[in-house]
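Data card: per-record layout.
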Amino acid sequence: MPFVTHPATPATALSAPKQTSRKKIVSWAMWDWGTQPFNTVITTFVFSVYMTSAAFGDTNFTSQALSLAMMFGGLLVAVAAPVLGQTVDRNGHTVRVLRAMTWLLAGISASLFFVKPDPAYLWLGLGLLAVGSVISEIAGVNYNSLLPKVAGHANVGRISGFGWGMGYLGGIVVLLLIYFLFIQPEVGLFGVSGTEAMDIRVSMVVCGVWTLLFTIPTFANLHDSPQPLRRAIPGIERWQGRRPEFIWRWLAPVVASYGELANTIRRLWGISKHTVYFLLASALFRDGLAGVFAFGAVIAAGTFGFSSGEVIIFGAAANIVAGVSTIAFGLLDDWIGPKRVIMISLSTLVGMGAVIFWFHDGGKLIFWIAGLIMCLFVGPAQSASRSFLARLIPVGRSGEVFGLYATTGRVVSFLSPAFFGLAIGLGAAVTGDANTQYWGILGIALVLLAGLLVMIPVKEHHEHTPLR
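The structure for this 468-residue chain is written out next.
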């Protein structure tokens, strides 16, 4: 069913009749709480810092290796998201696929236990980290597409912010839990110590168990809607039956899905160019936001000399700040509109990135101040971006549109990791210093600035041509 214009404002997925409740809203948000250990503990404050430590090699080399792994993970999402997103949208198994992806993410998290502190394990650890990031992102498509089922026009900003905020607050709880039980004590719970990095590795198992446990409410209270008629992929008949048949049996749906994606973008461009502009802008600044969390703790340790314990304490403070600000900005989102929230957030983030670069030799206090200010605005920008798009989605098209949202985001998801690594190399060439990791923040700030500039001409959501 193509997108078409309509003289009257059509019903969107947010205004469609739905049976929702506080229990469903909380159950939906619990997925963010339950899966947050992968973002907070693994990707940001503990495992990525562990992988760039001296146990695995030179700081510049391990930092660039991390950026390379995350770049390839992002490219894989860009390739897979259109096919998987459309498939789930057609068969109506959003919750079922989300459950499978969540359990797989829990398994990958726990499997990081086997990454020992030795250079021989560098690429195993980075490979698992990249695969986990792919699974996390694809699961997030399905999770986001459930937002219109639990929200309406009047409260979408508040509920989106509540979900993001729950994630950040869940992140601080699990971060403090593993810090005080395993990492900070010389001998922690169950006799775990820092020998062979056992404190870090056992923490990865805790992350996996946490994800399994706290997403139970999500899958107990949210269910797929009946889908009596499975929709075929438009244009698939052109590719079926080609030789060799055993290859095209599997390849035809993939090729047809990419063809449908191109048609969707073409139709969308003809109806609402500003929606396309928003997708492009959000692709850029969401990648920059991801880069802040992916490499922030790495910079804290490698440039500002934070110990593992200090990184975790900073991470706890960062998640409290991010969680509270995201929930608060969710209320502001419904009041002043999501675009203004995005613009305020991105402007501040670019400015604080410049502060960290120029004053990198000013000691840990500089990072504490500028880093926490950045954390105030990362969550609101992410949440407002999601609520902006949710306000535009036609009835029955949540999976398709959020799949396109993920696809456009991941098409450029290599930018932050690549620019982070390239900026480090440029810094080494310019200064001749052995450790120019702090230059990486310039690469991330540049991606955020690009998203900000593209976002400037985008109209507010209520000024876009409605889709149907």
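Known properties of this structure: DSSP finds 17 helices and no strands in the chain. Residues 59-91 form the longest helix (33 residues).

See the next section for split statistics.
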